[in-house]
């Protein structure tokens, strides 16, 4: 199962990233748990200074920007299931 | 946000070339427009509306017709350049540069990086925690956090457009000086105990973070989007401000304000700062008004102090920082920055 985390305190970009990610996960038809991480101590564990961050199976794949759908698809495809 | 990640290298080069061509064309169009503004404004006020030359209404309207498109054009062009420059910096890179720097040099570097690092107030908290956690001294962190809002890109462009490059330069330099002084003082006062306790307990997982390097196509496209966003947010305030300024320009007699906002009124600098701190979102509208006030005898130092207190100490940012700072530290920060701004105001009134 995929474990996906959206890191961000609720800014506009964090919400956009969450929405895009949910859409793409639905396309993949895999079981995935999408968690919004909004508490700073928890966000800061990933060593980032700019939000939103995207974490797939505990690996930080992007931060400080909204990645393109093609990038997110590639990251999801490369996760060993 | 579109992205060229899915393109082959050859197509990426093509996208870059195409966007360079587009930006070049836009720059030419921009220059052409900028150069016909003044004749156009005069033609509109004195030709089309047939207002008599030297009339108050005619002067006020010509001023308005010239300043509005000029400032909007300047804002668009310069914000685009500034955001493109900023795309080469990132908070993560800035943290790496500031790591292990001594006080003094560190404060200077932090203030300078505060101007160019892209930073939105929603990232102020992670940035603060990340800096402190990686061992950057509190004072150096504050130099960064002061410079970022005090030196505001919209204010900088408006000062350049309405007062000229000298005043814009003075604003930039005094903003840097204020950020450095505020950071050094906060560092010396040993206020670490007034940082919320959880901040000191944050530990990262040791994964190194590597920033994304955008292509030119993405860089310029993002700059264009941010430019639209910023200009879209302030244009109405700019027009309202210029309208009020045009009224003052046409109707208020020369040196009417020398008595209350001039150099010799010692109390005007602190009064301007006290008035400026609670005013926040209207920075874009305030500068055109103060530019008109200056023509009527207000002193430059007083005007700059007012401006910096409007943009530098903003309530929304202080509320966000409250999550990591105890009220005592926020109060100290506000007092130090206000005093530094007042001091700068006096300095300019005295020197110029």
Report the CATH C-level class of chain A.
Answer: Alpha Beta
- First-last Cα distance of chain A: 7 Å
CATH-defined fold name of chain A: Glutaredoxin
The number of distinct helices of chain B, counting runs of at least 4 residues, comes to: 16
Q: What does the radius of gyration of chain B come to?
A: 22 Å
Query: What is the number of domains of chain A?
Result: 1
The residue ranges of chain B in which pLDDT falls below 50 over 5 or more consecutive positions are: none
Radius of gyration of chain A: 12 Å
The end-to-end span of chain B amounts to 47 Å
E-strand count of chain B: 0
Shape of chain B: flat
In percent, how much strand structure appears in the residues of chain A?
25-35%
Task: Please report which band the strand proportion of chain B falls in: under 5%, 5-15%, 15-25%, 25-35%, 35-45% or over 45%.
Answer: under 5%
Low-confidence segments of chain A: none
Supply the number of structural domains of chain B: 1
The amount of helix of chain A comes to 25-40%
Categorize the overall geometry of chain A.
Answer: globular
The CATH architecture of chain A would be: 3-Layer(aba) Sandwich
Give me the secondary-structure category of chain B: mainly alpha
N-to-C series of helices and strands of chain A = EHEHEEH
Describe the model:
The complex is a heterodimer of chains A (81) and B (352). The model of chain A has no long low-confidence stretch (mean pLDDT 87). In chain A, a hairpin with a 2-residue loop joins strand 3 and strand 4. Chain A has 81 residues and is of the alpha+beta class. In chain A, strands 2-1-3-4 form a 4-stranded mixed beta sheet. Chain A has a single domain, classed as Glutaredoxin (3-Layer(aba) Sandwich). By secondary structure, chain B is an all-alpha fold. Chain B has one domain. Chain B contains 16 helices and no strands. In chain B, 41% of the residues are buried. The interface between A and B is medium-sized, with 25 and 33 residues.
């Amino acid at each position: 199962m995929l474990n996906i985390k959206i890191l961000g305190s609720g800014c506009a970009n964090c919400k956009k990233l969450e929405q895009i990610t949910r859409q793409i996960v639905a396309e993949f038809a895999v079981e995935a748990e999408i968690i919004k991480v909004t508490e700073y101590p928890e966000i800061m564990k990933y060593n980032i200074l700019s939000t939103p961050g995207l974490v797939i199976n505990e690996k930080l794949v992007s931060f400080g920007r909204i990645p393109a759908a093609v990038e997110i698809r590639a990251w999801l495809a490369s996760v060993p299931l | 946000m579109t992205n060229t990640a899915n393109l082959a290298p050859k197509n990426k080069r093509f996208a870059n070339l195409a966007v360079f061509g587009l930006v070049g064309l836009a720059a030419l169009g921009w220059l052409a427009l900028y150069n016909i503004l003044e004749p156009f404004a005069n033609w509109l006020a004195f030709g089309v509306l047939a207002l008599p030359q030297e009339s108050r209404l005619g002067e006020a309207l010509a001023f308005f017709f010239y300043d509005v498109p000029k400032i909007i054009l300047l804002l668009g062009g310069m914000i685009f350049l500034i955001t493109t420059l900023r795309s080469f910096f990132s908070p993560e890179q800035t943290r790496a540069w500031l790591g292990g720097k001594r006080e003094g040099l560190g404060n200077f570097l932090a203030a300078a990086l505060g101007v160019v690092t892209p930073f939105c107030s929603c990232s102020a908290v992670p940035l603060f925690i990340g800096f402190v956690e990686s061992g950057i001294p509190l004072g150096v962190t504050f130099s960064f956090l002061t410079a970022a809002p005090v030196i505001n890109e919209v204010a900088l462009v408006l000062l350049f457009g309405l007062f000229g490059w000298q005043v814009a330069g003075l604003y930039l330099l005094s903003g840097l000086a204020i950020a450095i002084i505020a950071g050094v003082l906060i560092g010396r006062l040993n206020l670490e105990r007034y940082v919320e306790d959880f901040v000191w307990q944050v530990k990262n997982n040791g994964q190194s973070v590597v920033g994304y390097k955008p292509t030119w196509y993405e860089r310029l496209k993002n700059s264009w989007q941010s430019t639209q966003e910023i200009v879209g947010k302030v244009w109405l305030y700019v027009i309202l401000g210029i309208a009020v300024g045009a009224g003052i320009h046409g109707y208020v007699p020369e040196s009417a304000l020398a008595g209350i906002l001039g150099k010799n009124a010692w109390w005007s600098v602190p009064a301007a700062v006290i008035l400026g701190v609670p005013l926040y979102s209207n920075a874009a509208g305030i500068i055109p008004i103060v530019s008109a006030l200056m023509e009527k005898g207000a002193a430059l130092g007083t005007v700059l102090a007012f401006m910096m207190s409007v943009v530098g100490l903003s309530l929304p940012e202080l509320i966000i920082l409250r999550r990591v700072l105890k009220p005592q530290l926020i109060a100290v920060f506000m007092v130090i920055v206000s005093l530094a701004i007042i001091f700068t105001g006096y300095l300019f009134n005295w020197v110029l």
